[in-house]
Design goal:
This protein is of the alpha+beta class. Helices cover 26% and strands 32% of the residues. The protein is built from eight helices and 18 strands. The structure holds adenosine-5'-diphosphate and magnesium ion. The site of magnesium ion has 2 residues, from helix 1. The site of adenosine-5'-diphosphate has 10 residues, from helix 1.
């Protein structure tokens, strides 16, 4: 059971400064794929590095598989970490990069060969085993970095923005590869990203952080449909949830509605139970499969974004009516 448990973990880099990680408490379940997501500087890497043993908490406790590791050096933790910049040894071939950690651990030669070959096979690295990292593409380097983690057969994998240096196509491929790896190995994985699309598509559970704190920890669909606060509502989803300020849909509270749950009407005549506002089309973003229509409510000038499927017949300047149905509203205090 390689559960990872954080109990009130706090990290302060400089005296008098705000904690980088603030009273972080969470249980990552055995075999779970957990994604930590949040804007740059919110404390994701620090959290991960404390699991790896690369940073020490100022207070609180971290345990892996039931053992307190809070002050244990990295080599004594059953973890492997994959970084954004790959961190390969530049003077070693792919084979040597893959073997290195096992040799350090005095794993028998036959066993090293067996494991390295198995991993190279599964990641498509066999043709490149004698190359140096500089003779590989970004995607191939990231595969080697992944392979180097896998050969160690750790019970916990830690990923720190491992796909951020790859182009969009390679990123999508590697995402799928990491998910397949998780399905195959069933190891506990903690994956850090600032990219909410990566978080939504990869996480079994997502932890949204800001300012060193957990804002919400829940499965992707729950985060999407029931964000815990306006920060989460604004961070997850592209475009973000529309947030109607107090006075528009509720006398005293903010109301959030996703763009796909708003619609535009020709006339004030209702489309069921909800609120209708006159509005003017401001501009239109056509994405092919869907269209984002930006409208300004009249007379307030409040901006709302509506997601329509396919193409739209709306044009900038069109007078329309915005319909906000009663369903799918999220009310924030
Ligand atoms: N080694 C360090 N020394 C001082 N401050 C640091 C150090 N590493 C990170 N920080 C600060 O801690 C906060 C959290 O950083 P980090 O964990 O890297 O966030 P993220 O990975 O979410 O971008 C930031 O304000 C950052 O500037
Ligand atoms: Mg980081």
């Amino acid at each position: 059971m390689a559960e990872v448990v954080f109990e009130n973990v706090t990290k302060i880099y400089a005296k008098g400064e705000r904690p980088a990680v603030d009273s972080f408490s969470l249980t990552v379940r055995d075999g779970e794929f957990l994604v930590l997501v949040g804007p740059s500087g919110c404390g994701k890497s620090t959290t991960l590095r404390m699991v790896a043993g690369l940073e020490t908490p100022d207070s609180g406790r971290i345990s892996i598989a039931g053992a307190d590791v809070t002050r244990l050096p990295p080599k004594d933790r059953d973890i492997a970490m994959v970084f954004q910049n790959y961190a390969l040894y530049p003077h070693m071939t792919v084979r040597e990069n893959l073997s290195f950690a096992l040799k350090l651990r005095r794993v028998p030669k036959n066993e090293v060969r067996r494991r390295v070959e198995g991993v190279a096979e599964s990641l498509g690295l066999v043709p490149y085993m004698d190359r140096l990292p500089k003779a590989l593409s970004g995607g191939q380097r990231q595969r080697v970095a992944l392979g180097r983690a896998i050969v160690r057969e750790p019970s916990v994998f830690l990923f720190d923005e491992p796909l951020s240096n790859l182009d969009a196509k390679m990123r999508v491929e590697m995402r799928a590869e990491i998910i397949r790896l998780h399905n195959r190995l069933g190891a506990t994985m903690i994956y850090v990203t600032h990219d909410q699309v990566e978080a939504m598509t990869m996480g079994e559970r997502i932890v949204v952080m800001s300012g060193g704190r957990i804002r919400q920890a829940a499965p992707p669909m729950e985060i999407y449909s029931r964000p815990a606060d306006v920060f989460v509502a604004g961070f997850i989803g592209t475009p973000p949830m529309n947030l109607f300020p107090p006075g528009v849909l509720s006398p005293s509270k903010t109301v959030g509605i996703r763009p796909e749950n708003l619609s535009l009407l020709e006339s004030r005549g209702g489309d069921g139970d909800g609120d209708v506002f006159p509005a003017k089309v401001d501009f239109i973003e056509s994405l092919g499969s869907e269209t984002l229509v930006h409208v300004l409510l009249e007379p307030s000038g409040f901006r709302a974004i509506i997601r329509e499927s396919g193409f739209t017949r709306r044009r900038p300047g069109d007078k329309v009516f915005l319909f906000c149905g009663m369903a799918n509203r999220v009310v924030f205090d």
